[in-house]
Amino acid sequence: MRAAAALVLAALAGCAFGSHRDAGPRGNPDDTLARLDAVEAAARKDPSLRARAGWLRYLIGSDPRGASRTFADDKSALALCGLAEIAEDRTDSLQATKLWIAAIQAAPTDAIAELAAVRLLDIEGEMPEVDDAIAQAAAAAKVPMSPRAARLLREAAARIAGRRAQAQREPSLEVEAWRAVGAVQHWRIGGPFGALRLFDLRRPLALDGRAPATAAVNDRALDFPDGDVGLELEPQDGDIFYAKSEITLEQGGNYLFWVEGAAALEARLDGAVAISRVPYPRESPRSQTAAVRLSPGRHQILVRWSRAEGSRFRVVLARSDGAPSDLSSAAPSELSGARLDAPCAPGEVCSAKPAWVDGADLRAAAASMLDADAGDALAAWLLARAAMGDDRTLSRFAVDRAIQLTSSGAPALALRAQQLLHDPEMPERIGRGKALSDLQDSVRKDARLLRARLTAAALERESERYDDAAQDLDKAEALLRDDKTPAPARLLTARARLLEARGNGAGARAKAEAALKAAPGRCDTLQLLADLSRRDGSLADQKRYAEALAPCPDGLGVAAQMARDRGELAKAEQLAELEAARNQVPSAVASVRAAAALAPRSPEPLRRLAGLLELLGETKGASETRRAALRLVPGDLQLRQQLALDEGARLLSWTD
Fold first, then answer.
1. Are 96 and 169 contained in the same domain?
2. Which of 151, 218, 316, 317 is least surrounded by Cβ atoms within 10 Å, i.e. has the fewest?
3. DSSP assignment letter at 194
4. CATH number at residue 592
5. Beta-bridge partner residues of 328
6. Contact of 260 with 178, CB cutoff 8 Å
7. In this predicted structure, what is the pLDDT of residue 582?
8. % of the chain with per-residue pLDDT over 90
9. Residue 300: how many CB atoms within 10 A of its CB?
10. C-alpha to C-alpha distance for 601 and 91, rounded to whole angstroms
11. How many CA atoms lie within 13 A of 581 on its CB side?
12. Are residues 149 and 273 in the same domain?
């Protein structure tokens, strides 16, 4: 009797609380399948509906093979994006990249071009071939193009250019790439002007009056090659800063005034508030835009921000025709400004009335599709993709809506797993557990969703559930054998990481080398081989993999760390110190230059080099070297103080 009672209580608890898979509205499977059948029947009569039918077959039917057959004869941007998603699900990143680029070229002014650009931004940095294709597509982009798609495509190319600039020690490559994006790179920053952080947002401060004013409080000119403004290395006491830049537009016209980053921020254009963001009581999106119309010539941008909710921000002016930016920026000689016009009071959320309408806005297009048809699964998917990473509140709603309208289709479940793994508000342990549950459900719906299966295996491996991870990888390999398809590099790398976790270094190295042979230059494989070589590999292997990692994200940092592990950097620094102590300054300069080459992302060798150049009397060279170090760490207070002394200025007197 007690056992029976326990079973009844367990059943009642399950009904009351459910599980993660049963949480929230799921939609009626019969209704969604009926909708799919209706669209496919209409597509047989109207070829223009084939792309939509293929997407619904992919999202609702969890049938990528059937969707691929539907997409086969359709060269529209929507169909190409569908084929790209299916290729990425199979972990064929290079093919997916080519298809997304083809989608942009097929319909550059359509909202779908933004979807393709968003996905290219997600995939950049995965392997050199992918980066080459994206960089070439950005260079060959033709006008007109959707402004959002053009900006995102050029941002992906700028990130690639930034890594190549560091590898080639050519900062101008990164500066020019971000200038083409439209990033404002040169600022004069002053402050702090308050001490109560978010409580000071509503209080009028030095440059918030209607009459122009000047604030000479600790103002300093700073350069940010990628436009990402931040003051992390400054003292944390005090808050509320002003940043001003003078921009010059060659052509003028319609622009998207694009603000990213800090949630407590007010951006003004020629004294008029364009965007005002406050993190409470509702969360602000990470990225916001305002459609503005500007005349050719000089304009002023003034940003008032708090470091309390995100310490960095970026301002971009993207042309409405998708052309490379005609903007150039400069730090003004003084920090001045006013609050001449605003749709809201300080410390409130608002944005300026749009001066023109962006007809290629993916988020607006998807929302309009949902308004017209509340049961449109494709619209919910597009809205989720447009908002993910920028607006957590909207993306959560859109992902849940996509799951409901697809009756928990495999792609929608995999998308929610991705969202859970990157949600900073979700406790890591809970998020990983829920994501794993969604991934397991998705591969039950679509056994050939390889990307989801590999992600599930990675989560199981990191939780030390090695047998479960091995079982997932075995199932993936069995399906590929049935399809007579060779194992992709991601699967081989996943197997290598599992072998490494189980302590089989030799087996892990063999699998990783096979993965590298299948996809030369793949960054995650090179990273694994570099890690293995650092533990028990030869010096030649360490050097080879470190050099191969140079084009990858953080590849130079890995190479510098390996040089430190081998003692090369320490030897160069010790030799420089010894030569300086012996007053052999020219030899010490050569040794420090060698150390800087071994650690191209570290400012320390450049800092030492500047001091040695001063000993040689090369004051100008010392200042240029400090500026090069400051480009690596724009917020370094000590470097900025040294440069201020070189220029005869006093910096941050409030910290004395």
1. yes
2. 218
3. B
4. 1.25.40.10
5. 248
6. no
7. 59
8. 55
9. 16
10. 31
11. 6
12. no
- Which residue type does 487 have? A
Examine the pLDDT at 19 and tell me if it is beyond 50.
Answer: no
> Could you tell me the CATH number of the domain that includes residue 229?
2.60.120
String of DSSP letters for 38-86:
HHHHHHHH-GGGHHHHHHHHHHTS--HHHHHHHHTT--SHHHHHHHHHH
- What is the 3-state secondary structure of 85-148? HHHHHCCCHHHHHHHHHHHHHHCCCCHHHHHHHHHHHHHCCCCHHHHHHHHHHHHCCCCCCCHH
Instruction: State the total domains in the chain.
Output: 3
Question: Omega before 204 cis (within 30°)?
Answer: no
Evaluate if residue 14 carries a pLDDT over 70.
no
Please check whether residue 135 is in contact with residue 157, taking contact to mean a CB–CB distance below 8 angstroms: yes
CA nearest neighbour of 117 among 411, 389, 328: 389
Q: Which amino acid appears at position 313 of this protein?
A: F
d(CA 152, CA 381): 19
Q: How far apart are CA 380 and CA 399, in angstroms?
A: 7
Per-residue pLDDT tens over the stretch 100-118: 999 999 999 999 999 999 9
Residue 68 sits in the same domain as residue 89: yes
- Say what the pLDDT of residue 311 is: 82
Q: Are 200 and 165 in the same domain?
A: no
Which pairing describes strands 213-214 and 313-319: parallel, antiparallel, or unpaired?
unpaired
> Same structural domain for residues 132 and 243?
no
210 in the same domain as 153: no
- Alpha carbon distance 104, 565 (integer Å): 45
* 56-60, 99-103, 521-525: segment of lowest average pLDDT: 521-525
Q: Position 106: which residue type?
A: A
Return d(Cα 311, Cα 253) in angstroms, integer.
Answer: 31
Question: pLDDT digits over 445-488, tens only?
Answer: 999 899 999 999 999 999 999 999 999 999 999 999 998 889 99
∠ CA 156-160-163, nearest 5°, is: 145
**Per-residue pLDDT band at 13 (split at 50, 70, 90):** very low
pLDDT at 12 over 60: no
What burial letters (b/e) apply to 467-479, b meaning 16+ CB within 10 Å? ebbbebbeebeee
Is 276 in contact with 348 (CB distance < 8 Å)? Answer: yes
CA 503 – CA 85 distance, rounded (Å): 35
- Look up the domain containing 70 and give its range: 29-179
Please state, as a whole number, how many other Cβ atoms lie within 10 Å of the Cβ of residue 650.
11
Tell me the per-residue pLDDT of 326-360, one tens digit each, with 9 for 90 and over: 999 999 999 999 999 999 988 899 999 999 999 99
Are 120 and 212 contained in the same domain?
no
DSSP string, 332-352: -SS-EE---B-SS-TTS-EEP
548, 551, 555, 560: CA torsion to nearest 10: 70
pLDDT band at 10 (very low <50, low <70, confident <90, very high): very low
Residues in the chain: 656
Quote the pLDDT of residue 202.
86
